[in-house]
Amino acid sequence: MTHTFCAELSQQQHDPLAGSAAHAERNLLISWPRAKWQRNLRHASDMADSLKTQLDEIAATGRRVNLIHRRSQDATCHQIFLMPERRRFDVARDELSHFLDRWRQGHSLARWEQAPPEADLILCCTHGKKDKCCAKYGYRTYKALAAAVLEHALPFDVWESSHLGGCRLAASLVVLPRVRKYGRLRPEQVLPFLRAEASGRRFLPGYRGDSRLTPAQQCAEVALLERLEFEAPFSQLTLTDDQGDEQQRTLCWQCEQGGHTTTFEVQCQSMALLRVDTCADLDQGPTESLVWQATRIEAMKT
């Protein structure tokens, strides 16, 4: 193929962002120098094999484990976050395995615990060993995020992150603990994105959906938010019904804002898309994936 980056091909194919927001709600984040990251999202080249095994066992329980990085962090003292619990710890390299054992056994972690993070975390994938799009697009967006937060005193803690899913959607990022996923965020979009999130709104040009929902439900959610962006930008949406099959679904939502409730019906239809999910797949070519698009939005009369 003539394309050298999966993210470029994804955009040219009109691969939708909505419906791609799958992500675990429970997360363990461990700071570790990016230069040591391996292809596996939770392994580093200077990790002991026993520590890698511990992290794999934790991931097997359903808690996602990511490595995070920023230059100011001491390479031998690891900052650790538990989300959505909003707990933060500082742990020396030689105590890390002991810390994880005590946490898994439910023992006190007081000797390592720090004040809980007041700001939401923004993780931006820069995992170049996993996919070169995350290095090319992710790192420049990360730099723009970090600079904007500092310059405008915005309430976020920004980190580089290992693989977050959706390499073809780079720059890919997630806001924790709310687990809002975004894709294709360009440096020039960083400030409006941060201001939207700081005000409690989703930045719709890059929003991929609510990770707790199915792909079809995410598609419907994003379409309805776009419909309401100007008339009711702070709407709270609640899914009340979801009927259909793998080809077509009809979803009902309650929209609440300012004491008023409106019910909307959104119809979504699936379609097959030939796409390349990662740069590693470029040589073998695209494979078929199912994506969703909203075809009808209607306010229901009460």
Alpha-carbon Rg, integer = 20 Å
General shape: globular
Mean pLDDT: 94
Strand order of the largest sheet: 5-4-3-1-2-7-6-8-9-10
Largest sheet: 10 strands, mixed
> From the coordinates shown, what is the CATH architecture of the largest domain?
3-Layer(aba) Sandwich
In total, the number of strands is 14
Question: Can you describe what's shown?
Answer:
The protein has helices at residues 6-12, 49-60, 96-104, 132-152, 190-198, 215-228; strands at residues 27-31, 64-69, 77-83, 87-92, 113-114, 120-125, 156-161, 173-176, 180-182, 207-210, 236-244, 248-257, 260-275, 287-299. 38% of the residues are buried. The protein folds into 2 domains: 22-211, Glutaredoxin; 213-302, Nuclear Transport Factor 2, Chain: A, CATH 3.10.450.630. The radius of gyration is 20 Å and the shape is globular. It is α+β, with helices and mostly antiparallel strands and 302 residues long. The chain contains 6 helices and 14 strands. A 10-stranded mixed sheet has the order 5-4-3-1-2-7-6-8-9-10. It has a 4-stranded antiparallel sheet with strand order 11-12-13-14. Helix 2 (49-60) packs parallel to helix 3.
